[in-house]
Design a protein that fits this description.
The complex is a heterodimer of chains A (about 325) and B (about 110). In chain A, about 25% of the residues lie in helices and about 25% in strands. Chain A is α/β, with parallel strands linked by helices. In chain A, strands 1, 2, 5, 6, 7, 8 and 19 form a 7-stranded mixed beta sheet that branches. In chain A, helix 1 runs parallel beside helix 2, helix 1 packs parallel to helix 7 and helix 5 runs parallel beside helix 6. Chain B has about 110 residues and is of the alpha/beta class. Chain B has a single domain, classed as Glutaredoxin, CATH 3.40.30.10. Classes of the chains: A alpha/beta (about 325), B alpha/beta (about 110). The interface between A and B is medium-sized, with 28 and 28 residues.
Amino acid sequence: MTENLVIIGSGPAGYTAAIYAGRAQLNPIVFEGFSAGGIPGGQLMTTTEVENFPGFAEGVQGPELMKQMRQQALRWGAQCITDDVIAVDFSQRPFVITTDEQSIKTHAVIICTGATAKRLHLPGEELFWNNGISACAICDGANPLFDNAEVAVVGGGDSAAEEALYLTKYAQKVHVLVRSDRLRASKTMQNRLLSHDRIQIHWNCEPVRVYGDQVLRKLEIQDIQSKDLTELFVSGLFYAIGHIPNTELFQGQLTLDPLGYIHTEGKSTATNIPGIWAAGDVQDHHYRQAITAAGTGCMASIEAERWLAENALLIESATMNLSLV
Amino acid sequence: MTLPSDNLSMQGRQALEQLQQISDQTILVKFVAPYCPSCETLAPVLEQLVTDYAGALQLVTIDMTEEPELAIMLAIRSAPTVVLFKGSTVIETIAGLKPKKVYREIVQKAIG
């Protein structure tokens, strides 16, 4: 059996594509992911307040927003599978999508695999990854080992500011390590960061090595200009230094841009292979918003539906029509 | 249909200690934290294991913020962290979310 459409990924782009494809009776299969490329639901799952998604005048919690999107996709007949896609074959038609548990044939694919938080891969980092070093303050900040401890956040953008402020709930002191002499975070976040009495910003510096025994104990910090090394005793190190696109699966099969993002054609979400579209952060390093991800997810779904119809590949689901009466 | 987690997973340190007193049971302990989405993602995978190994495998969920001493003793720094016990002995620790088969493999190895 060949499916109409497989959607890979489960952030705002993936679920919006699923809602539109479901309503178009394409009966989409959504591989939501499990442990690869971040968590199911995407980056919003580790965001607290989302204040800029239209329709939520009072703001909304990231996980709640994603739960609603998922429910909406399910209501329109999307089949959501919590598995990682481990291989794709775009060299034959129908395309083949493989997980640990199954292989699925499909006429069309929408890729919404998003981007993953970057790591520095410092000497010693592997030993302390998930054991003091983390890319998710919301996941790991509440750990008793950080209670009243000193921790460090690397980065100068909005997510670094958000993580640092969140960590002050638990840690006694939060050090923010910024590579340059200014913050990229929004003015509101900058003000909150700079005025907090338990947050200390270290300018023009970066961590170069981590030390510990059973757990993380200290960082070696280098001044970018003078190259001087200093020590910083912390129990936790949190990365907020941007993202890399989750495109490893598609290398050699799809055209990627020099930064590794999927290349899309003009004002569309089409990739270089007809029948495959890309939406959300996996093809966008410029806007990177929930709303733009959702917007491109919608575009991809409409483009996929038209392409399937034009190529006479569409199999409408009769069973689904019944279930929605 | 998966059963609600309460039917398959016991909660808290006391439940763990009671199980450890009974015999050398194989026990999966899932350390979670509040607001931890990966912990929810992992839940059905561990519940499936307990169903598949009914009688031979127990599952206990512990909120590390409620049991800081135990979390510190076991050097738990990330949510979720899964610790596999045989009685009171730690057999394996998996920090962070790993591919589903990793959890099955450690259970298979322990139970045979």
